[in-house]
């Protein structure tokens, strides 16, 4: 293992690489020449901040899949919330966040042509709505009308002004009723959508008239709903959007596409709103075909596992007839299509001839490009000529802009071509910049079939691990067992900074996609709820023992690391197998399911994952309390021997700091070696520039100390 000074310099090197955030193929692209507009981020550890910059490319499409690339100069922008060109490519909109000298936050919508800024609207001063939602966020979207006369965006609904009962400022009589401030409600609790959506209470659809700056706010078209993901309907006849039901109270929405939601259409002429999707399902991610004849979206159950296998549906726009294009896949084979697991979709995801959809989806332990023919409802995996994950960023005239990465390869952008229908086999990825891999990392995916522990309902299911090894190691490396969180999430063959730095520091790392992970079929995913703390723990331990018994790692130097549900598994593993692990590090761990219920933004999660039904009226009782305790790591705290480092995001609403603190106190009271680090300004993900770097070095130091 490297010295800590070397680990720090490794992190400085790999932790500050530029990473592509988003990009699109410009509508100005013509024939052979593609114009790509991309936005990047880069960590600056000296300034302790993430900077953002844009980069444009001209790609000449010579021979098929042979592209000549020129990249433009780099322009930095940190206050740009979004930059999107109009359908013709003639105009660009920039939504800008400005903090004034008086520390006021103002938002502007700027319209640019090829020469200069031609309009600049101070949206905040209009006082028509609250803050504009991040277009990349849960609710966000920014969409030009086909006419290029209007811009669709999502903003927080305007909140009532409130004043004290003792406010003596005279009420201006000219104010209409809803403008008059309300007395005595300044301290009312305002329900919001929870983790990373604090203050997001009721987003609404807004329409800006590009020419005169008027803003129309659609804040009364759908009662008691939050609106988002809005797109223009064909011929700008109205707006299609996703509506999430607000009441009776909101449950955390991020990472939880199971909150009651439906797809709606608001007609601009009638001002009427109609629901397009099934109100017994959760629907989201509406996308029109280029000719406007078809609308697709995804749906899954309301409630249940927080990520699920989703259905792909298509609405024939003229007739509004809706059909299922791709259904849930309950039990795929190791090689077959495992179903759709989609957290987001690029704005454009259709082939030029309106017959196919292209997207990225989890496919066992990787993220793959997938093509769906909406006529014959076939699903084809697009294999690429590079290892790792391929995430679709944009499609235009059957050219694909793809974000690629691998376990040893930081993310880069590439261009490729969609094969003709029926011949979707392997595609050639053409990088826009020369990929620079992290040297010395090899890996292999292993499949486990725990036939000795079949699931009571679904029988023999399998799961996978990814074992990453340092290529150059004169001794058997120590092993970090690394289960993912969720639990309905997955570790894939894409790049992760922490992992590449751990390997480069001399550790072996084993990702564990235990049963219940995404990408292995719906039955696999649903096998875990009700069995957490047992099935997932045993899956992790079986995999860890297998790799130790294989002699490839130093079995006397095994440690474990995990975040959130991965932290839950970490705490379980050191409690249930106290002699096996020499040290542990858990980030925002779930420690006690019953005490999580009253403080998390997702109280349905501890109920559902421990096998108990949930609705908004759900309350703990003696039976549930006992069962939750039995499934929680706190149950095994007396057995813990491994020194345990606990890292918390001080603002975490998902797994509140009380969980980690409960574990810390229990360990301290039992004279166990433990340390708790609380990172201010971080929520569930500990990703602030300095915090993320500090957490990594502290974790490596902790492991090195107890592996000596
Ligand atoms: C997949 C997922 O994130 N599920 C949500 C319900 C969730 O936030 N789960 C947390 C308990 C968790 O484990 N989150 C993981 C993904 C993490 O590492 O933050």
Automatic annotation (TrEMBL):
InterPro entries found in the cross-reference section: 6-blade_b-propeller_TolB-like (IPR011042), AARE_N (IPR045550), AB_hydrolase_fold (IPR029058), Pept_S9_AS (IPR002471), Peptidase_S9_cat (IPR001375)
PROSITE patterns found in the cross-reference section: PRO_ENDOPEP_SER
Highest taxon of the lineage: Eukaryota
Pfam families: APEH_N, Peptidase_S9
Entry EC no(s): 3.4.19.1
Ranges of residues in domain Acylamino-acid-releasing enzyme N-terminal: 36-418
This protein's GO CC annotations: cytoplasm
Keyword Acetylation appears in the UniProt entry: yes
Keywords assigned: Acetylation, Cytoplasm, Hydrolase
Main location group: cytoplasm
Molecular function as annotated in GO: omega peptidase activity; serine-type endopeptidase activity
PANTHER family: ACYLAMINO-ACID-RELEASING ENZYME (PTHR42776:SF4), SERINE PEPTIDASE S9 FAMILY MEMBER (PTHR42776)
Its biological purpose: This enzyme catalyzes the hydrolysis of the N-terminal peptide bond of an N-acetylated peptide to generate an N-acetylated amino acid and a peptide with a free N-terminus. It preferentially cleaves off Ac-Ala, Ac-Met and Ac-Ser. Also, involved in the degradation of oxidized and glycated proteins.
Subunit structure: Homotetramer.
Protein name: Acylamino-acid-releasing enzyme
Organism, as annotated: Mytilus coruscus (Sea mussel)
